[in-house]
Amino acid sequence: MGNLLCCVQVDQSTVAIKEQFGKYQDVLQPGCHCLPWCFGFQLAGHLSLRVQQLDVRCETKTKDNVFVNVVASIQYRALADKANDAFYKLSNTKGQIQAYVFDVIRASVPKLLLDDVFEQKNEIAKAVEDELEKAMSAYGYEIVQTLIVDIEPDEHVKRAMNEINAAARMRVAANEKAEAEKILQIKRAEGEAESKYLSGLGIARQRQAIVDGLRDSVLGFSVNVPGTSAKDVMDMVLLTQYFDTMKEIGASSKSSAVFLPHGPGAVRDVASQIRDGLLQASVDH
């Protein structure tokens, strides 16, 4: 019906190319337009002004001879004021963009090591975008955005990289574990040293208390019993403790057999040794 009335409709975000007898005349904006076909006017076609996306997968190799697949995402659109160039100058827009992407990526990636490719993907994307912007602006297209969305090394290389990463993490974990064990051993040694110190301090205080008690007993006995010397009192006290000890050993059901020399001379020797030891402890203190 529109053709019979010589009217055509151009949708939003779209422009139409008007020709007369096959020659370019004008760019029709969105809306309704009159094209009297009897005067040779016709629509050559429509051109979308929407942003379009093209994903380009390019295989190349890095400086360290690792083959990778680089996936670039190109977002572009035709310019309304250059619609005639965009419509007439290029017959295969996507193929042209793909060729420029291949050229830039295969010129940039071989200069970088594999690790640098991952780190500098934004620089690669910027180089692709700059090259496309210069080339495609002459054909009436604008490059909106260029992204490097994926970098895929060969499967064997990817597996080796994962193994290297895993080994590095295991090495760090082993170092941390060894450091933790070292700290535990140091703390354990410090605890044992502190325990031994406190134990020795307790034994020293115990011996000092025994010496002080014996001294007080000797002094008190000497005062209350005239005619006795301190040596006599000490011998009697030590002899009493000796027999008490023997009694406790014999009363214990779990004690083992203990063989000690027994007799008047032996008792005198034991008393002499104990007395000398206690007196020496008192002097050292």
String of helices and strands: EEEEEEEHHHHEHHH
Strand residue percentage: 15-25%
Q: What is the approximate shape?
A: rod-shaped
Mean pLDDT: 80
Helix content: 55-70%
Distance between the termini: 126 Å
Protein architecture, described:
By secondary structure, the chain is an alpha+beta fold. 55% of the residues lie in helices and 22% in strands. It has helices at residues 83-88, 93-108, 114-119, 121-136, 155-224, 230-251, 264-284, and strands at 7-10, 14-20, 23-28, 31-34, 41-48, 52-61, 67-78, 141-153. It has a three-stranded antiparallel sheet with strand order 3-2-5. The longest helix is centred in the middle third of the chain and has 70 residues, at 155-224. It is rod-shaped, with a radius of gyration of 52 Å. The termini are far apart. The mean pLDDT is 80.
Structural key phrases:
55% helix, 285 residues, three-stranded antiparallel beta sheet, alpha+beta, single chain, 22% strand
Q: What is the structure about, briefly put?
A:
The chain has 285 residues and is α+β, with helices and mostly antiparallel strands. 55% of the residues lie in helices and 22% in strands.
